[in-house]
Design brief:
By secondary structure, the protein is of the alpha/beta class. Helices cover about 40% and strands about 20% of the residues.
C-alpha cells in the first residue's frame, strides 16, 4: 500500500494530541477532512488504527506501530530533502585553513570533525604549510586562518592568539636508552640511531633549520610520513625520535626526555588572515573549534584571557578595543 506523507503527518499529530480535532488544527484541515483521511488510512491498512472515546482518541497496537514507522519515514524524508536542497544553494567560498605537520596531527583533524558536523553548509580547504608560507598567504588575503609557530611568526603584523604548547621532546622504547634520563640535548640524542620524518616534512625542515651548518651527523634508520607512525616506531625500540610532546598518546608506554636545546621550546599560535574568504561568523566558528581542540590535547596549558593574549594587526591598538576573535 502507498502512504501519503500528509496523511502520516496528520496521524502523528492526532496521536500526539490525543484528538482528531487538535490534529486537524495542526494540519490546517477541517475536522471532516481529517476524519476522512483517517478512515482512508484504516481502510487501506485493513485494521483499526484509533480507539475513539468521549475524551479523545488513542492508538491501537497497529496504530502505535504505524506511528513509530511514520516518524522514521518523515525523518528520513526531511534528511532527503535537505541533502537534495544542498545542491540548489549557491556554494559559498570554502574557508582556507593552513597549518604545519605538527598541527595536522590530531589538532586540526579534531577541530575539523566537530566544525564540519556543526556547520554542514560550510566547506573547509585544509593545506599543510610551513609557518613562513602560511604567514605570507594570510598577509596576502589568500587564507582565512593558520596554525603557526611562535618563533617564526613574531612581528609579522597579523592578528594572533596563543593556541597551545608544541615543544619538542625525545622519545624511545620504555626501559630503553632513555631510562632514567629526564633531559638531553639533540647532539646527545644523535649519538644513537634515530627514526625521523621525511626530509620534506615541515617538522624535519624546521629542526634542520635550527640545527644550522654544524648539525651532528645523524643515522636515520628510517623516515616516515606522519607522526603517528614515527611515535609507534620509537615505542617499538627501532630508534629514538624527536617529536612534539603533544603527539604522544598518554597511554602509550614510551620513555620521554626533555629536549634541552632552546629551539625545542615552541608554541602554536592561531593566526588570522587580513581578509576573510567566507563569512566572518564561519571563520570565528572554526577558530573556536580549533581553540577547543587545543584545550583537549593531553597536557594542554591555559592560554590566558583573550583580551591579553590577542595580538592585533595594529600593534598600537588598545586591547579593550579589539574584537573577540
Amino acid at each position: 500500500m502507498r502512504y501519503d506523507l500528509d496523511d502520516l503527518r496528520l496521524f502523528l499529530h492526532i496521536v500526539t494530541e490525543g484528538s482528531i480535532t487538535a490534529g486537524a488544527h495542526r494540519m490546517h484541515l477541517s475536522l471532516p477532512s481529517a476524519s476522512a483521511r483517517v478512515r482512508s488510512l484504516e481502510h487501506h491498512a485493513g485494521v483499526a488504527l484509533l480507539i475513539r472515546g468521549r475524551r479523545g482518541v488513542r492508538p491501537t497496537p497497529a496504530g502505535t506501530t504505524l506511528a513509530r514507522h511514520a516518524r522514521d519515514v518523515l525523518a528520513q524524508t526531511a534528511r532527503l530533502d535537505s541533502a537534495v536542497a544542498s545542491y540548489t544553494r549557491s556554494p559559498g567560498a570554502p574557508l582556507i585553513l593552513l597549518g604545519g605537520g605538527s598541527a595536522m596531527h590530531r589538532l586540526v583533524p579534531r577541530a575539523l570533525v566537530s566544525f564540519l558536523r556543526a556547520h554542514p553548509d560550510t566547506d573547509v580547504t585544509v593545506t599543510e604549510s610551513r609557518t613562513p608560507r602560511t604567514v605570507r598567504m594570510l598577509a596576502d588575503g589568500e587564507a582565512d586562518l593558520g596554525v603557526v609557530l611562535d618563533d617564526e611568526a613574531r612581528d609579522c603584523g597579523l592578528r594572533m592568539e596563543p593556541l597551545g604548547d608544541d615543544s619538542l621532546v625525545v622519545i624511545g622504547q620504555a626501559g630503553g636508552i632513555l631510562a632514567g634520563r629526564t633531559a638531553l640535548t639533540y647532539r646527545e640524542a644523535a649519538e644513537h640511531p634515530l627514526v625521523g620524518l621525511d626530509a620534506d616534512s615541515s617538522l624535519r625542515r624546521w629542526i634542520e633549520k635550527h640545527l644550522g651548518p654544524h648539525a651532528p651527523v645523524v643515522r636515520h634508520r628510517t623516515t616516515v610520513a606522519n607522526l603517528s607512525v614515527l611515535v609507534a616506531l620509537a615505542a617499538a625500540g627501532v630508534g629514538l625520535a624527536v617529536v612534539p610532546r603533544r603527539a604522544i598518546d598518554p597511554h602509550q608506554p614510551v620513555d620521554v626526555s626533555e629536549l634541552q636545546d632552546p629551539w625545542a621550546r615552541r608554541h602554536h599560535l592561531l593566526a588570522w588572515g587580513v581578509k576573510a574568504h567566507a563569512a566572518p561568523t564561519a571563520t570565528e566558528a572554526l577558530a573556536e573549534h580549533l581553540r577547543l581542540a587545543a584545550l583537549s590535547e593531553p597536557g594542554s596549558h591555559a592560554r590566558g584571557t583573550a583580551q591579553t593574549a590577542v595580538m592585533m594587526m595594529d600593534p598600537g591598538r588598545r586591547s579593550e578595543d579589539s574584537p573577540r576573535p
